[in-house]
Design goal:
Elements: H1 3-12, H2 16-20, H3 30-40, H4 46-53, E1 57-58, H5 64-68, H6 75-83, E2 101-102, E3 108-112, H7 117-122, H8 129-140, E4 149-152, H9 166-183, E5 187-191, H10 193-200, H11 206-209, E6 214-216, E7 221-226, H12 229-234, H13 239-254
Parallel strand pairs: 1-6, 3-4, 3-5, 5-7
Antiparallel strand pairs: 2-4, 6-7
Helix pairs in contact: 1-3, 1-8
The protein binds uracil.
Residues 112-116, 119, 125-126, 130, 152, 230 line the site of uracil.
């Protein structure tokens, strides 16, 4: 990816000012600024990962009985089961299920909360404004949407975009757990509090879960937590922290 294109994606993350703090300041030419930006994008130093590796947290294992329902199921069968699912009340209000999308050999799995109105209509996760920002976040660390796999904790839209309730999450999580088992990602990125809390079975705040290598499930997939793009649309000042999380995740992934 050339530096100008990367600069565009970083700009979507609100990181223009970060660029201009480098040697090429506000008065310098666009070419000089682009060059300074490219030089300033760090490949995280080993010390960073080593520091964080000390803070490893284990997610509780999924409830065995629920997980067993999907054991051994392949991608087509899993997709069919999700499409026909009536395990919770959201099946009555959805337009369609939102299974997940992306490369079935992806290193990165991005996990969000639940489909919104756009996703419910199109049947694909993260296709609205939050999805556009997610694409920019991925591009900023050199990933195209098509290279990763994207899914949600819930496969159906909660009416009015309310938070998923615990019973809905408990019914739906085994589908995601089977997706993870089939995909075998090198890294998982939980975007937002709901995804992080459900995947890690915790009620800790998002802020306290960031910048640590958590581990998911029996296969101990490294899991990094960052802000939800929908939240970042409302709170752009936290984009800088998100950029730190993305670089951290990229660094962890490069060491798997
Ligand atoms: N927010 C999510 O968490 N997931 C989507 O698919 C869309 C918006």
């Amino acid at each position: 990816m050339n530096s100008e294109l990367r600069q565009e994606y970083l700009a979507a993350l609100g990181l223009k000012s970060w660029t201009l703090r480098t040697a090429a300041g506000p008065g310098s030419s666009p070419a000089a600024q682009a060059a300074a930006l490219a030089a300033a994008i760090p490949i995280a130093a080993p010390a960073t990962a080593a520091t964080h590796a000390a803070a490893i947290h284990s997610a509780a294992l999924p409830i065995a009985a629920r997980a067993a329902r999907e054991a051994g199921v392949d991608w087509p069968e899993l997709r069919a089961r999700v499409a026909a699912c009536t395990r919770c009340g959201l099946s009555a209000t959805r337009t369609q299920t939102v299974f997940g999308v992306g490369n079935l050999h992806a290193d990165w799995l991005i996990v969000g909360e639940a489909p919104g109105a756009d996703e419910d209509r199109k049947g694909e996760p993260f296709v609205g404004r939050a999805g556009q920002l997610l694409n920019s976040m991925l591009h900023a660390v050199g990933l195209a949407r098509e290279q990763v796999y994207i899914a949600n904790v819930l496969k159906c839209r909660p009416p009015g975009n309310r938070d998923p309730n615990p019973a809905e999450a408990a019914e739906c999580l085994p589908y995601l757990e089977r997706q993870i088992a089939l995909l075998k990602p090198k890294i998982m990125l939980a975007v937002g509090r709901i995804a992080a809390q459900n995947l890690l079975h915790t009620d800790k705040t998002l802020g306290s879960l960031r910048q640590q290598v958590h581990r998911f499930g029996a296969s101990s997939v490294p899991l990094i937590v960052t802000y939800h793009p929908g939240y970042l649309l409302r709170t752009p000042t936290d984009k800088r922290k998100t950029w730190e999380d993305l670089k951290f995740a990229r660094d962890v992934c490069s060491r798997v």
